[in-house]
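S.,

As promised, the iron/sulfur cluster run. Input:
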Amino acid sequence: MNMHDSERVLGLLSKRGYIPVDDPKEADLILLNTCSIREKAEQKFLSTLGRLKHLKNKRSDLKIGVLGCIAQQSGDKLRERAPYVDYVIGPQNIGRVGEALDFEEGVFTEDNLEIALSEIPAYRESSVTAWVNIMYGCNNFCSYCIVPYTRGRERSRPASSIVREVEELIQQGYKEVTLLGQNVNSYNGDVTFPELLRMLNRIKGLERVRFVTSHPKDLGPELVRVMAESEKVCEHIHLPLQSGSDRVLKLMNRKYTLSEYMEKIGMLRDAMPDIAITSDIIAGFPTETEKDHQATLNALKEIEFDGIFAFKYSKRPYTRASTMDGQLPEEVKSERLTEILRLQDEITEKKNQKLKATVQEVLVEGKNDNGQYTGRTRTNKIVNFVSEGEINPGSLVKVLITEAHRHSLEGKTL
Ligand code: 5AD
Ligand code: SF4
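Predicted complex:
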């Protein structure tokens, strides 16, 4: 979501005649797009911002802006703390970047109720795959999460506007779109999310449709059916589990139990036996016991995700979990995270090994640093491969998988 926000800010700026430069020393305007989902992201931002102060001291005409969730969360305070910051623009207001630049300075952090209606041009790096926003914000208030406080309530974009953007992308040569939303499958525009997928599936020239991130509570039989029936909708879902302990899930306010989650996995795998399922896990939520942690490890063993993102629980301002008793020491969180990652690495490697000697459809994105072609399977696995003939980015090719690693597959064209 943040990467796509950056693409849209670049789109707006390029319309005003700005061009990107590689070296901050050459820039007239530096915008930092920030994330506040975990404290570590915030620390990285603060150290980057500190470095920019020296640039500003040398060049008073340089403008510095902070975008994203840290901007939203800190507002005016950010400029009090770092007076060399000229603009503070929250994620609901990125469409106003152009307007902000007409002023010497400013803080733009109001709720934007119209966000789903704004059409902001994106400046995309890839020419094959494109992100497309379909909904904004979150209503779920998982007890650990800051997103509902920074990105505001859920708002869905009208289907006609989404279809129009995708059709334009196809005309520009794009082959794949990834629909974006904090809870993408809670999309609640003028059609339902499964209906939207069916509409996109009918678009000529579009090869693949993906979507992130799905919430288990909104994954029903209709969505599974549409995924299975729509040839353009890829067999991959990112479905955060967060914990394998029902007690912790309840404290997290996730609104499902492990067995309900497993039922959904069963439904997906029954309909699409080769579907790849990935997930997010949080290690060391407040009060998490060794038994809860073991329940998470057992769930990972039983489900066998294709991959996970796992994080140490991080205390976030405003959130319910940050005030809970039973915050765990860093060492415990680190140990548990290491165990989770080690177990999942084995599972991911085992799952990828099973793909050896299979033939996969790969959408070619270009060449990697080693001169091999690179692209992804429908199940979102990276494939690096060799080919005797030249292949253009955007081509769909059949690749025989010859090697499997944890983060990628290797192969050759047939
Ligand atoms: N601490 C650790 N991980 C978090 N996430 C969200 N908030 C926190 C937090 N406070 C994780 C969740 C979510 C992913 C995007 O980030 O796993 O799915
Ligand atoms: Fe955060 Fe939960 Fe909303 Fe995801 S669903 S953005 S984890 S509050």
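The mean pLDDT is 96. Residues 37-38, 144-145, 240, 242, 280, 282, 311, 313-314, 316 surround 5'-deoxyadenosine (ligand 1) (CB under 6 Å).

- D.
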